[in-house]
Amino acid sequence: MRNFACSSCGNEVYFENVLCLRCKSALGFLPDRREIVALAPAGKSLFRRVGAKRPDKTLLAYCANHQHGACNWLTPAGEGSGLCAACVLNRTIPNLSEDGSLPAWRELERAKKRLLYSLLRFDLPLDGARWGKGRLSFDFISNATTGHLDGVITIDIAEADTVERERQRKYFGEPYRSLLGHLRHESGHFYWMVLVEAAGRLEAFRALFGDERQEYGEALARHHAEGPPADWSAEHVSAYASSHPWEDWAETWALYLHMVDAIDTAEAEARNLRAAGRSPGPLWPRRAHDPYRDATFDALITRWVPLTIAMNSLSRSLGHADLYPFIVPPPAYEKMAFVHDVVRAGAP
Hints:
Elements (H helix, E strand, L loop, with lengths): L3 E2 L6 E2 L12 E5 L4 E7 L5 E4 L9 E3 L11 E3 L13 E3 L8 H21 L15 E5 L5 E3 L2 E5 L5 H10 L7 H19 L4 H8 L6 H11 L18 H31 L21 H21 L12 H16 L3
Parallel strand pairs: 8-9, 9-11
Antiparallel strand pairs: 1-2, 3-4, 4-5, 6-7, 10-11
Helix pairs in contact: 1-3, 3-6, 6-7, 6-8
């Protein structure tokens, strides 16, 4: 994710911030501009953007979920339900009167908004109605099965508990498990419907991932009962990816989103190093670079591989496991390149 600066004083701020610690301005995220802005009061619960090159008289309001500490996105004042472009996608949220539900929901919203930020940067559709598909939406529910169905991503709120998530990671023998990883994976199922099936790319998909018409429930049951094939690592990014072509796509999709967002973050930090008079190295040139829009797949991989080595080395230096615990075989890189091409081509 790119760096953000307070539009009032220039102080560096983060995507989730609601207050600039230097000038004390309120902060909010404008989804249509993909940026954090400083706000000046303009009436009860109303604000105007400050620091713009041109005077901006548009009245803004925080999302209705701001009152719960669950959202810092902004909406035009007086429009719609009072929910922002991200929160309006929620079908179900936890019962906030139940113990532990509010902090869990806040963590889920933080991860969901990072997912949606990436989807907005890619300019991907959030509604599949044009292609006879559902709208991307979210159910955050207790004692639910995490998954996707017709555009609806369901996440068990227990996944927001670090201890429970680690227990599940060990139980399933996974090298990596996070809320953002879940959401990226499940969003891949939605975008398979829109960017592959509806776009007429099934034959190209099947040539790389296999025939998705094999019975899905049986394939998953077999995977959970028998485990992955012994040679799964020769063609897949994870053991779970070997269970069915849809899961192979979703795991590859999630890994692609991880890669692009991490490179975007590294590019932003490289700009900081250049501004401080330090060279970040030849892989991070001075030219402005947007990995979401103007990079070839080969250019992304050229940056990605040394970045993963650096990330893992830093993590080990702090006594932690590798941040990027994946070994990607050549066939899986071909699948990632397919995801890249599909994303850049966009919806039909």
